[in-house]
Amino acid sequence: MKKWNTLFIAAFFIFLTATVITHPQASLQASKNGLAMWWEVVFPSLLPFFILSELLISFGIVRFVGVLLEPFMRPIFRVPGVGGFVLAMGMASGFPSGAKLTTRLRQERQLTRIEAERLVSFTNSSNPLFIFGAVAVGFFHHPALGIVLASAHYLGNLAVGVTMRGYKARHDAHLRSRKKFLFPPFKEAFNALHTARLAEKRPLGQILSDAVMSSVQTLFMIGGFIILFSVFSKMLSVVHVTDLLSIGLGYMLQTMHLPPELDLAMIAGLFEITLGSQMTGSQEVTLLAKTIVVSFILGFSGFSVQAQVAGILAATDIRFKPFFFARLLHGIYAAVFAFLLFKPLYVSRSDMALPAGAFDASQQVVMFSSVLWNQLVKAGPFITLCSMIVYIALYYRKLKNG
């Protein structure tokens, strides 16, 4: 079996190299598109969350939150209370923050390997700005659809967490004898924070420097994966492999009573969610069908994001297979929720032509997210450039002092 894996990997990279050499123009354009996505959106949107997460862990605040959330996270998801922090940060910042935080907590032994595999399976999700601003407004031109997509996506994520709580449950036998608190005392949580803070021996300046450097290095790795899968997806299209795959996928969509015209968009989404979402939004089919397909794409996350997560998890003993299985579940759950929620959350609220002052809270969230996303795209390159300059300065100082 290992020999076949070696043969497959070798054939894959030979194919990729050959297609890049024979189609340099298409490869260059795909590289530019991937780099632009990372430069304008991914880097500036994830960097603040990565740095703040590193600081919160270093100062022991995550342990404080973990003690408080233990009665909630343990019975529902069978993960420690610190998982609540990872879940919140993962939802707010998007892929692959959940994997990075889970890896960091595993390295600090705040999670067992099984708990980490459960946690990472449902803490990686798309951020609200992308769902509301890019997909609903930018690709679909239906702002109100963002409520359906976000609800289906996050409900599907939580459903994955509940499903994965049964993953290797026998490994939790050692927890049954632990004393359980319905409401853990604030004093216990503060003691955990104080103990973690005292255990941190690095000075404040070094903590800040390490947080910035670790975050930027992770984002460099993410950028490499984005560019690689952008090129790979384009090469499959150039040599017409996607046309062959679309035949089988078209039949599959028909059996699920979905338009076969969405086959190419679905294939693109299996590799990269942004391209797949954009292609889905441009198809001339019913809005319900497009909503179901794009919900699956957002839940599955695409091989590009999954490769990023695999690269992050490789620093620990956390296995990738449970995460991949969870992505399939998330895609299915999100598609089902999108079908169930489309009528009550979109059809009944489809009239957006309301007078000034008549917008309710959900509509204000949609419009605010759209504006914020557009501002992020405009300011993204400047933020990325400044961050890289700071990183180079810190790295130079580290080399000089080391």
Automatic annotation (TrEMBL):
Q: Which keywords annotate this record? A: Membrane, Transmembrane, Transmembrane helix
Q: Pfam families this protein is in?
A: Gate
**Species this chain originates from:** Bacillus safensis
UniProt keyword Transmembrane present:
yes
Can you say what this protein is called? Answer: Sporulation integral membrane protein YlbJ
Transmembrane portions of the chain: 46-69, 76-95, 129-155, 292-316, 323-342, 376-396
The record places domain Nucleoside transporter/FeoB GTPase Gate at 41-138
Q: What is the lineage of its organism?
A: Bacteria, Bacillati, Bacillota, Bacilli, Bacillales
Gene name linked to the record: ylbJ
Q: Which domain of life is it from?
A: Bacteria
